[in-house]
Design brief:
Elements (H helix, E strand, L loop, with lengths): L1 H25 L30 H15 L4 H12 L31 H14 L6 H15 L19 H7 L7 H9 L5 H7 L7 E3 H9 L13 H8 L10 E3 L11 H7 L6 H4 L5 H12 L5 H13 L20
Antiparallel strand pairs: 1-2
Helix pairs in contact: 1-13, 2-4, 2-5, 3-5, 4-5, 8-13, 8-14, 11-13
Cofactor: Ca(2+); heme b
Keywords: Calcium, Disulfide bond, Heme, Hydrogen peroxide, Iron, Metal-binding, Oxidoreductase, Peroxidase, Secreted, Signal
InterPro entries: Haem_peroxidase, Haem_peroxidase_sf, Peroxidase_pln, Peroxidases_AS, Peroxidases_heam-ligand_BS, Secretory_peroxidase
């Protein structure tokens, strides 16, 4: 009997692995010696773009990120999220950093971005770099490099970041509201969001793994807990014991309390997010949605059953793709003097 159970387990793992190979092959996974090598780089971006014009730029950015993370490890998630939200609207052009004006509501004031943090970190880094090399390094590149460095500093993977992005001059709240994936989205909506940016289903499930660090706000999950279908019920896709635990933290009308996305390791970048999702404890509806599609579910199951066997490499690869979305290069856009305002 014990041998039969073992053989059954091995067979199921083999089937899972074969399904995973099919998934990665269908999405064109490329593996290089250094993560990110082998992926297509948009024209105008290059590794070491500032080597001649501002040789200490990347080391200055790294050192300043390290200072901030050393004093507050919870900043890693907001810096990563800034990059994600920036790239999903008008590409990775730093438009999420711009302030609203009397005639325009900017991205940062759109509902999905009202809980963003880390703007002060980016502005402090920009100020330091401007002292070294005025008008050379873009805010968009600072956001991309800060995201990479902050993840690595909380034991996550690193990846190559080609630089040379220029800063955009347009920022509209309406576009952020329409294009940033919602925490209430179902899997088909998520697939549409990612596909619109040239990202695959695999990128969707991999980048969702960013929720392994950071927090969620109670007001985002209140309906899941207390009124999912308008009948005073709880979302049946949420583990009942975990729902009960969340109800002790998040009360109806609570707009301030926060909850760890990945309880127990919310400041450590690991693959435990997939264990959370697999056991129906994903905080957002968009996390739970990953179990409702064969491709995303296979990936979740693989990572949760193998302690994240490929997650670090996959995440790095997908972050390279994310950072290449809709970049401005050459004479496009500008190099802002301050990240919150156009020149």
């Amino acid at each position: 009997m014990a041998i039969q159970k073992l053989l059954s387990l091995l067979f199921s793992q083999l089937v899972l692995f074969l399904l995973f190979l099919d998934l990665t092959n269908s999405q064109g996974l490329q593996v290089g010696v250094q993560v990110g090598i082998g992926l297509t780089t948009p024209q105008g971006l290059q590794l070491g773009f500032y080597r001649q014009t501002c040789p200490n730029a990347e080391s200055t950015i790294h050192d300043m990120v390290q200072q901030f993370i050393s004093s507050d490890r919870t900043l890693a998630a907001p810096l990563l999220r800034l990059h994600f939200h920036d790239c999903f609207v008008r590409g990775c052009d730093g438009s999420v950093l711009l302030n609203s004006t009397s005639t325009n509501q900017a991205e940062k004031d759109a509902v999905p971005n009202q809980t963003l943090r880390g703007f002060n970190v980016i502005e402090a880094i920009k100020s330091a770099v401007e002292k070294e090399c005025p008008g050379v390094v873009s805010c968009a590149d600072i956001v991309a490099l800060a995201a990479r460095d902050s993840v690595a500093m909380v034991r996550g993977p690193s990846w190559v970041v080609a630089t040379g992005r220029r800063d955009g001059t347009v920022s509209r709240a309406s576009e952020a509201l329409a294009q940033i994936p919602s925490p209430f989205a179902n899997v088909n909506q998520l697939k549409q969001n990612f596909s619109a940016k040239g990202l695959s289903v695999k990128d969707l499930v991999v980048l969702s793994g960013a929720h392994t660090i950071g927090i969620g706000h109670c007001f985002v999950i209140i309906n899941r807990l207390y009124n999912f279908t308008g009948k005073g019920d709880t979302d049946p896709s949420l583990d009942p014991a975990y729902a009960a635990q969340l109800k002790t933290i998040c009360k109806p009308g609570d707009n301030t309390t926060v909850v760890a996305m990945n309880p127990g390791s919310s400041t450590l970048f690991d693959a435990d997010y997939y264990n959370v999702v697999a056991t129906r404890r994903g905080l957002f509806q968009s996390d739970a949605a990953l179990l409702n599609d064969i491709q995303t579910r296979v990936y979740v199951t693989l990572q949760s059953s193998t302690n994240g066997i490929t997650f670090a490499q996959d995440f790095a690869q997908s972050m390279v793709k994310l950072g290449n979305i809709g970049v401005l290069t050459g004479s496009q856009g500008e190099i802002r003097k301050q990240c919150a305002v156009v020149n």
